[in-house]
Q: What sequence folds into this?
């Protein structure tokens, strides 16, 4: 089912103010769960040195879905011309969770920064008549600033699971954006540490923006997910890595930080995300 509903136009945004996409969907009588969320961004104007990125989230009036936050597609506007970019303008995310008929499911989204152009958001929620195989949650960090200096730790953030709604960690996601100059590359990795028993430090690669940035290079960069196979096979529009279910009970802290592979004129910025089940 589509948000906005019926034949209404998509919801426009050009800044970091969160907007509701449409007015919400009434859960059909036959539906027992949410299976997936599809997000579609129409880029109306791209401007040199502006990045289009952000998050989309689902919430319901019964307040059982929250938190459920996912990254939007990415655009790094190096030249300001839409024709010079190959981008993912739509993504699909599995968001398994039970819902109750006649409840209202709502979608919200925000960009990470103000853009010159106004971009249009749409969301599609896939309901299922079967109970969900798990009760999934995903929390995001605030926008963090990385380092412009190679091999320098930056962008520290902590994401915590919920005290009463956590039995296992299912993975994480992240993305970074910048507008590197010629002969520079945006790339690196994110480190995830925790005091949880048996947790091993994780190091996962960031999305890449290649060097050159001339007419010979058409940038394509995607948020990176490191998740269990049951979720990974349902994702579309993202780069993916495997992860195994990791038992986590109650509220636990996971500490994220980022390293760049090279020194850049412009420091990157981005977000982290943590995914778990009840």
A:
């Amino acid at each position: 089912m589509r948000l906005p509903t019926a034949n209404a136009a998509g919801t426009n945004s050009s800044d970091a103010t969160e907007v509701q996409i449409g007015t919400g969907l009434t859960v059909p009588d036959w539906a027992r769960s949410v299976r997936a969320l599809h997000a579609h961004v129409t880029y109306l104007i791209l401007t040199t040195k502006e990045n289009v990125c952000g998050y989309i989230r689902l919430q319901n009036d019964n307040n059982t879905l929250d938190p459920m936050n996912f990254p939007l597609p990415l655009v790094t506007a190096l030249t300001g011309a839409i024709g010079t970019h190959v981008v993912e303008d739509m993504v699909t995310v599995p968001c398994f969770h039970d819902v109750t008929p006649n409840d209202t499911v709502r979608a919200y989204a925000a960009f990470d920064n103000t853009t010159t152009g106004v971009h249009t958001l749409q969301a599609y929620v896939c309901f299922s008549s079967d109970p969900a195989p798990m009760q999934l949650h995903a929390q995001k960090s605030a926008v963090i600033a990385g380092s412009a200096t190679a091999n320098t730790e930056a962008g520290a953030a902590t994401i915590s699971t919920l005290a009463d709604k956590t039995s296992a960690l299912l993975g994480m996601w992240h993305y970074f954006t910048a507008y590197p100059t010629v002969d520079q590359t945006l790339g690196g990795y994110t480190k995830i540490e925790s005091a949880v028993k048996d947790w091993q430090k994780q190091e996962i690669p960031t999305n890449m923006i290649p060097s050159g940035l001339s007419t010979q290079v058409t940038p394509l960069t995607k948020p990176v997910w490191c998740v269990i196979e049951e979720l990974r096979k349902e994702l579309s529009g993202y780069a993916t890595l495997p992860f195994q279910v990791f038992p986590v009970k109650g509220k636990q802290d996971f500490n994220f930080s980022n390293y760049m592979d090279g020194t850049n004129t412009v420091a990157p910025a981005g977000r982290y995300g943590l995914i778990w089940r009840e």
